[in-house]
Amino acid sequence: MAEIVLGFATSHGPLLATPPHEWDLRGAVDRRNSELAWRDKTYDFASLLQARGPEFVALNAADVRADRFARCQRSLDELGRVCEEANPDALLIIGDDHHEWFMPDIQPAFSIFHGDQLLNRALSEAETEHQNSFGLSYAAQIYYPERDETYACPSALASHLVSSAIGSGFDVTSCAAQPSDAGVPRRLGHSFGFIYRRILSKRPPLIPVMVNTYYPPNQPSTRRCFEFGRALGRALKAWPGGERIAVAASGGMTHFVVDEEMDARLLDAMRTRDYERLVSEPEIYFRSGTSEIKNWIVVAGILAETNLAMKIIDYAACYRTEAGTGSGMGFAVWR
Ligand SMILES: [Fe+2]
Question: How far is the CA of 89 from the centre of ligand 1 (A)?
Answer without folding.
Answer: 26
